[in-house]
Amino acid sequence: MVVGQEVARFLFQRIASGALVIVFASALTFFFVNLAPGGPSSIMRFDVSAEQREALIKRMGLDKPVVERYADWAAGAIRGDLGTSLLSDEPVTQRIGERLPNTLILAGAALVVSILIGIPIGLIQALRRGSALDHLLSFYSAIGLAVPVFWLGIVLILVFAVSLGWLPSAGVTTISEDTLVERLRHLALPTVALATTTLPTIVRFMRSAALEVLDEDYIRTAASKGLAPRVVVTRHALRNALIPVVSAVGALVPRLLGGTVVTESVFSWPGMGRLALEAAQGRDYPLITGITVVVAGIAVATTLLVDLAYTRIDPRLRAS
């Protein structure tokens, strides 16, 4: 009963703090967009008739103070109404809903690849500390952190799509062959490009955490009892070493969502990152604000899941 109350209190605190983050992010974005040069007030200078300008001002509520406009927008957002896109005259929620699944697929695939490859590599580096393999993998990690996503994406397209012709260079699927295999082929290159920038972070966190755990007394005690090295590593070291890695994964999600802006543009991937770029270029302010709120919500939800994962990995953290 006490544990259930602690979990409920924990969830309430995290949800409340997450809601404050979303409110702060939405307010900051809304005020910056509305008050910055080139914001919605710039429609006053559009080459349109006085009647058209007046209708546009009324439609966007620019005849009201910015605080009142934000209050009206926030009231609509609570009901699920994020406004209307200026470019397409469609609801912002509809435009985001059309693109969000593609972004989640791309970011999720990149994260899964980073985890599945990064954790074993980091563990191997810790077990082979100071070896040539350790130095080689550390060098790769440094290169992966330094390589720009747009450059890597172009190189991947030139090599695997243009020169070798193995994989498609753009889009989600081929219109004439809309199958799961075809979708995976289109997903391969953008996933590799996006995962290469996040994989080194997981590798470094895993290596550092594993090195710290492997030096603990209980690990040496387990080894001295005659347990096989594989059992010592998998049963005793790996679980405790994963705690900092879980934290790194949670921090990587917002970075992945931000990285999709460049990745989706390079590979013509119809996701929310590319939509954000189109909204910025077209001065679609309601859409920009809506995308920011959705990304903030995803980041908050990810943080909550990471905190819950902490309690799953180490029950001692439930009461903290």
Notes on the structure:
With 320 residues, the protein is mainly α. The chain has two domains: 2-78; 101-283, MetI-like fold, CATH 1.10.3720.10. It is 76% helix and 0% strand. It has eleven helices and no strands. It is globular, with a radius of gyration of 24 Å. The two termini are 17 Å apart.
Under CATH, the homologous superfamily of the largest domain reads: MetI-like
Strand content: under 5%
The rough form would be described as: globular
Rg calc: 24 Å
CATH class membership of the largest domain: Mainly Alpha
Low-confidence stretches: none
Q: Indicate the CATH topology of the largest domain.
A: MetI-like fold
- Helical residue percent? over 70%
**Category by helix and strand content:** mainly alpha
Total strands: 0
Instruction: Tell me the domain tally.
Output: 2
Oligomer: single chain
Q: Give the biggest sheet.
A: none
Name the average pLDDT. 79
Question: What is the chain-wise order of helices and strands?
Answer: HHHHHHHHHHH
